[in-house]
Amino acid sequence: FFSSRRRHTRSASVSWARRCVQETGRMVSKANNIIFQPKMDDVVQPATALVADPHQIALIKCCMCGSAMQPNATNMCMQCLSSRVDVTEGITKQGLLHFCRQCTRYFGPPWMKCELESHELLSICLKKIKGLNRVKLIDAGFVWTEPHSKRIKLKITIQKEAQANAIIQSSFIAELVVENMQCDDCKRTWTPHTWNSAVQLRQKVDHKRTIMYVEQLILKHSMHTKAINVKEMPDGIDFFFATKANAIVFGDFVHSQVVSVIRSSKQLVSADKSSNDYNYKHTFYLELAPISREDLVFIPPKLQKELGGASPLCVVLKMTSMIQLLDVVTLRCFSLDANCYWSHEFRAICSKKQLAEFVVLNVEEYEAPAEKKGGINMSKIERLAEFAYANIELQRVSDFGENDTRLFARTHLGDVLKIDDHVYGYDLESLNMPEIEAKKKELPDVVVVKKCYVKKGSKNRRRIWKLKHIEKDAMDDTKQAKRMEEKENKDYDEFLDELEEDPELRAKINLYRDEEAIAMLSKKMEKLAVEDKKSSPEQVPSVEKDKAKATTDINVSKNEKSDAKPTGVKVPRKGKNLRKERQKKETRREPESAAKKLPPTGKEEEKIPKPVDKKEDDEWEDEEDDPHGVKITELL
Q1: pTM above 0.70, yes or no
Q2: Rounded CA separation 226/211 (Å)
Q3: Cis before 147 (ω within 30)
Q4: Residue 360 near residue 420 (C-beta atoms within 8 A)
């Protein structure tokens, strides 16, 4: 094509040669996405002289379409070559994708739980298409289909070298049919051998408060998610797992939260001696320490010496990964770990059922012993708790009106107790305990455990918070289950009371809002507010809005009281709490006049009471409490 170069000038020949290189050096077919990129040695360089370069290759015409091209083995251009060569040959366009309807997982392998049009599902689908390893994958994506059609379509773009220096890019649609198939884990749930390992959580006591506390810890840390089944038992809970590793992790977690011991065993299910395969079922027995909070325990003599001469009786303050004990004589605190407890195992001689109620008659605080002031011999528990020691005088609630028997005790609740307070404790004089008969003279009359908080209306009271529970299967014995139901409800109420009284225990678990209780409480408050509006007379208008409409003249001074009742003033209701307080402070209470005065008009000063506030309805007293009428100070 340099035959006509003599007819043109040098500049024209250079531009024409460049255009030829652009047309023949790189040919692109947009219809078929064909890219032809020749080698750099074969590209025709622009003519810089009138003489042809001997190293350049002459172009030929395609044998099919007649377009100019570089010579190759087929003598065809890339457009014609792509129409006769299929780069998707050997790649499957259809396939199967297995799906488990029970657990909603797709088979990869392994079984994976993934959503539609997610990256995880795309990777599983690409694994089902064979032949992609022989081509270069450029792009892949989902084509929308109906969710119920059981079809998943993919648009895949690939590149492949059809001839030397010729790369062809093409796109195609692959379709996968979703087929239902049950996974191995779901198959086990329908067979007798559903579980491989079991954890038996047990505590040999007459209540389930500690088991309930452990259940809340399991819920907070989501340790029950891998359990296949959970079953309720009379003295604990059974957890079943598919693998032994999950059961070991669960047992280690419970062992780290409470003082316990783990024992394991296994049972042969099947065996194949030819291949040396044995199938076992593993059982882990997790026993909690048979003591609970607020129990009175008897320390063995050997452990008393190890603790530095502790008294035989102690009260359990806390029951966590460490057992915290309080000496009833010296009021010292001790901490025992699981190894120390199980090497000197001891039980409770008195539980929460034996607690008696006492009334505090006198409180005398005293400073800590000299060896504890500097904190040298003070335990970590005492430093954190900051106990206040006191000598108190008590009387049994049951002895009121019968005798004047008074008991004496030492307690660590000196900063909490006041005169006329009620406390719970163990009455050592009335309890029959052969273990302490020899040292009964050295022990106090009463072991004070905690303060009693009187809650008004506790029978009909409903909490605005609640706890979540693990879904458990009922016991096989229906008669025993009915007997245990009432007992568990009582233990559950006591456990909720402990959560309300102990903020440290409450901080370790999750509490949830009870929307039903909150809605009922709001409706009840609205109903009471409507009843108060109907039963109460109209309110007195404010002085700022209309002073002329005031129809009440109340002349009250600090030294005199009026027998006449003010008209238009809301009569207060009964208030038990305020009536008691008034009886105590009646001698030192003086009436005050809080009415606002009108500007002087030559007449007597008019005093008008303030409008009644709805929020103060519950704080008013009855007019029967004051024989002379209603006081303005009480209204305000």
Answers
A1: no
A2: 19
A3: no
A4: yes
Q: How many residues does the chain have?
A: 636
Report the DSSP beta bridge partners of residue 238: 200, 231
Helix residue spans in 290-349 (DSSP H): 301-306, 338-343
In the sheet with 323-327, reading across from the earlier edge strand, the strands are 333-336, 323-327, 313-319, 296-298, 348-350
Best CA proximity match to 238, nearest among 253, 252, 228, 249? 228
* Closest residue by Cα to residue 329 from 448, 432, 478, 459: 448
3-class state of residue 291 by DSSP: coil
Rounded Cα distance, 125 and 119, in Å: 10
Token duo for residue 130:
């064979």
- Best CA proximity match to 228, nearest among 478, 477, 475, 472: 472
Contact by Cβ (8 Å): 292, 319:
yes
Instruction: Evaluate whether 601 touches 550 at the Cβ level (below 8 Å).
Output: no
461, HSE (Cβ side, Cα atoms, 13 Å): 12
- Cα torsion 417, 422, 428, 431 to 10°: value is -160
Q: In sequence order, what DSSP letters do the residues of 497-553 get, joined into one string?
A: HHHHH-HHHHTTS--EE-HHHHHHHHHHHHHHHHHHHHHS-PPPPPTTT-STT----
pLDDT, one tens digit per residue, over 19-42 is 544 444 444 343 344 444 444 344
Asked if residues 539 and 612 have their Cβ atoms less than 8 Å apart, the reply is yes
Task: Give CA separation, 626 vs 296, 395, 497, 552, in Å.
Answer: 51, 35, 39, 20
The predicted-structure confidence for 70-103, as pLDDT tens digits, reads as follows 887 778 887 888 788 888 888 999 999 999 998 8
Q: Are 53 and 45 in contact (CB under 8 A)?
A: yes
d(CA 453, CA 500): 11
SS3 content of the chain, % helix, strand, coil (to 5): 30, 25, 45
DSSP string of 168-214, one letter each residue? EEEEEEEEEEEEE---HHHHHHTSS---SEEEEEE--SS--HHHHHH
- Answer positive or negative: Cα dihedral of 417, 423, 424, 428: positive
Instruction: List, in order, residues 6 or more apart from 404 with CB less than 8 Å away.
Output: 395
Which residues have CB under 8 Å from 599's CB, separation 6+?
none
**Nearest-angstrom CA–CA distance, 325 and 315:** 6
Count Cβ atoms within 10 A of the Cβ of residue 263 and give its class: 0-12 exposed, 13-18 middle, 19 or more buried: exposed
Token couple for 164: 């030397």
Other CB atoms closer than 10 Å to residue 319's CB: what's the count?
Answer: 21
Assign 475 to helix, strand or coil.
Answer: coil
What six digits make up the tokens of 324? 């915290």
User: Beta strands of 78-180 (E only): which ranges?
Assistant: 94-100, 105-107, 111-112, 136-143, 151-163, 166-180
Confidence tier at 158 by pLDDT (50, 70, 90): very high
Residues 6+ apart with CB under 8 A from 472: 230, 231, 232, 237
Per-residue pLDDT tens over the stretch 37-58: 444 344 334 433 344 455 677 8
Q: Would you say 168 and 159 are in contact if contact means Cβ atoms under 8 Å apart?
A: yes
With vertex at residue 577, the alpha carbon angle to CA 571 and CA 583, rounded to the nearest 5 degrees, is 90
Name the β-bridge partners of 284: 199, 264
Q: Classify strands 197-202 and 277-288 as parallel, antiparallel or unpaired.
A: parallel
- Residue 351 identity (one-letter amino acid): S
The four Cα atoms 427, 430, 433, 439 give a dihedral, to 10 degrees, of: 70
